[in-house]
Design a protein that fits this description.
The complex is a heterodimer of chains A (420) and B (363). Chain A is of the alpha/beta class. Chain A folds into two domains: 4-141, no CATH class; 158-417, P-loop containing nucleotide triphosphate hydrolases (Rossmann fold, 3-Layer(aba) Sandwich), CATH 3.40.50.300. Chain A has helices at residues 4-7, 19-28, 34-40, 52-57, 91-100, 107-127, 132-141, 205-212, 235-241, 258-265, 274-278, 282-301, 317-330, 347-364, 375-381, 399-404, 406-413, and strands spanning 167-176, 179-189, 194-198, 220-225, 228-229, 243-245, 335-339, 367-371, 384-389, 392-397. In chain A, the strands form two sheets. In chain A, strands 6-7-8-3-9-10 form a six-stranded mixed sheet, sandwiched between helices. Chain A has a four-stranded antiparallel sheet with strand order 2-1-4-5, covered by helices on one side. In chain A, helix 10 (258-265) packs across helix 12, helix 10 (258-265) runs parallel beside helix 13 (317-330) and helix 12 packs across helix 13 (317-330). The two termini of chain A are 32 Å apart. Chain B is mostly helical. Chain B has one domain (7-348). In chain B, helix 3 runs antiparallel to helix 12, helix 4 (73-94) crosses helix 10 and helix 11 crosses helix 12 (290-306). Chain B is globular, with a radius of gyration of 22 Å. The chains are: A alpha/beta (420), B mainly alpha (363).
């Protein structure tokens, strides 16, 4: 992850108490996220407020989030490309600048601004906020609503910044009876990110996977897969749309051979209807050849091609886990969900797995999201990590940030850990 | 790891072996029948055996391959039988060639049985396990009762249907084809051993080809793990329904083969007991084992006839045989004996063995 603070020139003395700024912040309290205000006061990362054009360009990554942020959460940079001039400015300053530069702007912009001012004035008047003097000034100087980019709680790798995130969860939640198993789950996964989802036992990690794959229908919230809402889709439809998964307790087709397992994963990639199969029409032979070829290619990734004819249930445990990943890959996913891929693997196999997960990401250019208790693996290969506890995201960030996060340590070790 | 020993050995393990068994068995029975070495009862029973083999294979598609316990299979046989008989009567008025009439009637019966399978399958496939079994049982009974009240007649004006009585058909001339509880009367006995043999081959081809294809793999995937099947994008309902409908169509053909071996067929023939009987054949032959279905259906259809000399004790012996077949393979001594045979004769060795050493799974 980029460290935006290094690159952002300090401007306007953000941390100095500026009366005008404080007043503006007070106004902003009116309906805006408290965090925005916090940021506005200069206590949070300045980088939140990019220049508007810049912000719009990066719209997909900079999203709103209204959950409580982790104290040291790294908020995303609206622009982290080093070549570009640092065009970010603190919103208020920008506004002031715009005011000064008004004659340069087009008529449309002017009109637009005026209409915003009108709204602002009406609001201010209705709610009785702002001093009389200010109102008077505004009336004279035709004040405008201050539009600020909402900060996002999402993080993506720098290289995925200009692409639609493969997964966006907004306020995702599910209740089982009175229990909020997952609540207000917000997450963005970049196009080629290796993301980690960790948390203590029973935190709701697998439930999140089940929500993403629609094994459970979410009670609340939205899931966007590569920008497409998966609302109303069934599990097979979501799989066809591009989410593949493995299971915590291995779910192979144990009575079938390794190759057949992969061929079943290829079900929607190679087509052949029932009649072609029954009457052994030419289409059948073509499709079977394709199944065989693609299955062996996929098995080769994990060098399992020589096991193609073995019954899946007879494979050693580690090989079964690998086969499950291959089967998931066979569906040509955009996002691969791995539920404890290293469970039951020895250190050597885990090492191999890490290499393979990176290889899958690089070769197929897909995102991988994994649940794992093996912290070595998670800290090693995950680029962004979300920590879940009691169905809520308590922290998000890079491995380093997560390791140092007090809330995460408390979630894992209990609150007394800090005192000890 | 044991490789397929010879080319023949490998072929034998595949579908080819199954076809070969059927062809050889047909040849033997045919020779025996023409030489007069078979009792006349058995000779008359040959088409029935073929019908039961087909029904068993088709039920195995549902129970063994698709993994659903269906207890209404005889219902689809009766749909095929009665629609086929009506169709045969209509066709024979136009066509003079009996075998062509028979084939067309078969296809008609299959189509109607498939429709019945679809209509029953759509609601039934919302269920699974025991619930599915009970609902298929209920549908089987519903079909039987519909057939019990069905009157069909054919005269110059065409087909007449009624659900109340033969008088309701309002026919002056022509003849009644299906007469309610008395069933189909005056059926042309078009079933032959050769026809049955072809039916078994067709059933085998359909089922084996379906199993060894994309659709078949999907069906087996749903059976083995429906959650995993859904997670790779397989529409589970579609493939469960596909297996059910194909099995129904094949059962319809088997039903017609069975019915056309007799002069008259009453609907009670296709009741709950008939469904259970076919299920017994499937279970004894091995769930999912097509070759086993053929053998068990043959043996268990012939057995009561062979035991006829024991008069009232024959069903007792029949029951004991059933129990023995189910229990003996689980007796350690018998298992050791079978292992010994497998060791000595490479021909019987199982297809694949565990490669390398299996590490214990930490679950």
């Amino acid at each position: 992850m980029a460290e935006p603070n290094d690159r952002i020139p300090e401007r306007g003395g953000a941390n100095q108490p500026d009366p005008e700024r404080a007043r503006a912040a007070e106004e902003l309290q009116n309906g805006l996220d408290p965090r925005v205000e916090e940021a506005y006061r200069g206590t949070a990362n300045e980088d939140l407020y990019g220049e508007p054009d810049d912000f719009r360009q990066k719209a997909p990554v900079a999203r709103t989030g209204d959950e409580a942020p982790a104290p040291d959460m790294d908020l995303p940079a609206a622009d982290t490309t080093p070549d570009e001039p640092p065009m970010r400015e603190e919103a208020l300053e920008l506004e002031r600048e715009e005011e000064r530069a008004e004659p340069d702007k087009g008529m449309a912009a002017l009109l637009n601004r005026r209409s915003r001012q009108g709204t602002y004035a009406a609001q201010a008047a209705a709610k009785g906020r702002g001093s009389k003097a200010r109102t008077a000034t505004r009336a004279k100087a035709t004040p405008r609503t201050r539009m600020v980019p909402l900060p996002s709680d999402g993080i993506v790798p720098e290289r995925d910044l200009h692409q639609t995130p493969v997964l966006e969860c907004r306020h995702l939640g599910i209740d089982f009876g009175g229990l909020h198993a997952v609540e207000d789950f917000n997450l963005i996964v970049g196009k080629t990110e290796i993301a980690g989802l960790i948390g203590p036992n029973g935190a709701g990690k697998t439930t999140v996977f089940n929500l993403l794959t629609k094994v459970y229908q979410p009670t609340r919230g939205t899931i966007l897969l590569d920008g497409v809402d998966t609302h109303g889709m069934s599990t097979p439809k979501v799989a066809q749309a591009g989410i593949a998964r493995t299971f915590q307790n291995i779910r192979l087709f144990a009575n079938l051979t390794v190759e057949e397992n992969v061929a079943i994963g290829l079900h929607n990639q190679v087509r052949c209807g029932m009649w072609s199969s029954i009457f052994r029409l030419p289409k059948f032979w073509v499709s079977e050849h394709e199944f065989h070829k693609q299955a062996l290619e996929l098995l080769d990734i994990f060098s399992m091609a020589d096991l193609a004819d073995v019954t899946a249930g007879n494979l050693p445990y580690g090989a079964q886990r690998r086969l499950e990943i291959i089967r998931a890959l066979a569906t040509h996913p955009k996002l691969l969900l791995l539920d404890e891929p290293a469970a039951g693997m020895n250190p050597v196999e885990t090492e191999e797995l890490m290499t393979n997960i990176r290889k899958i990401r690089d070769d197929f250019q897909i995102a991988v999201m994994l649940i794992e208790h093996d912290m070595d693996l998670v800290m090693n290969i995950c680029e962004g990590i979300a920590v879940l506890n009691y169905g809520k995201v308590i922290a998000k960030g890079t491995p380093e940030e997560i390791q140092g996060n007090q809330q995460v340590i408390e979630a894992y070790l209990g609150s007394s850990a800090g005192e000890a | 790891m044991v490789k397929g020993t010879t080319v023949f050995g490998r072929l034998w393990k595949g579908p080819f072996g199954t076809y070969l068994i059927v062809v050889v068995a047909y040849a033997i029975f045919q020779v025996l029948a023409s030489a007069g070495s078979l009792p006349s009862v058995i000779v008359g029973l040959l088409p029935t055996i073929c019908a039961y083999i087909s029904a068993t294979i088709s039920l195995n598609l549902v129970v063994g391959i698709s993994g659903e316990l269906s207890l209404g299979h005889a219902g689809f046989m009766s749909v095929g039988a009665y629609t086929g008989i009506v169709a045969a009567t209509c066709y024979s008025a136009v066509i003079d060639i009996p075998w062509l009439v028979f084939i067309l009637a078969m296809l008609t019966g299959a189509v109607f049985a498939a429709i019945a399978g679809f209509v029953v399958g759509v609601p039934v496939m919302r269920l699974s396990g025991d619930y599915l079994a009970i609902v298929t049982l209920a549908f089987g009974e519903i079909i039987k009762n519909i057939m019990n009240n069905l009157y069909v007649g054919l005269d110059d004006a065409g087909l007449h249907f009624s659900f109340s009585s033969a008088q309701d058909l309002h026919m002056t001339n022509g003849n009644i084809i299906i007469n309610g509880p008395q069933g189909a009367v005056g059926v042309e006995q078009l079933s032959t051993f050769f026809g049955g043999f072809i039916l078994v081959l067709v059933t085998l081809a359909v089922v084996l080809n379906l199993i060894r294809s994309r659709s078949g793999r999907a069906i087996m995937a749903v059976r083995d793990n429906s959650i995993a099947a859904e997670s790779v994008g397989i529409n589970t309902t579609k493939y469960r329904l596909m297996a059910f409908v194909v099995a129904s169509a094949l059962a319809g053909m088997a039903g017609l083969m069975y019915a056309m071996n007799y002069n008259a067929v009453v609907p009670v023939r296709f009741d709950y007991n008939a469904s259970i009987l076919i299920l017994v054949y499937v279970v004894l032959g091995g769930i999912g084992n097509i070759r086993g279905s053929i053998i068990s259906a043959t043996v268990l259809v012939v057995l009561p006839e062979v035991l006829r000399f024991m008069s009232e004790y024959r069903m007792l012996i029949y029951a004991i045989v059933l129990i023995a077949v189910m229990v003996l393979p689980n007796v350690p001594a018998v298992q050791r004996f079978l292992d010994y045979i497998q060791d000595k004769i490479p021909f019987f060795r199982s297809r694949d063995e565990v490669p390398g050493d299996v590490t214990e799974g930490a679950e």
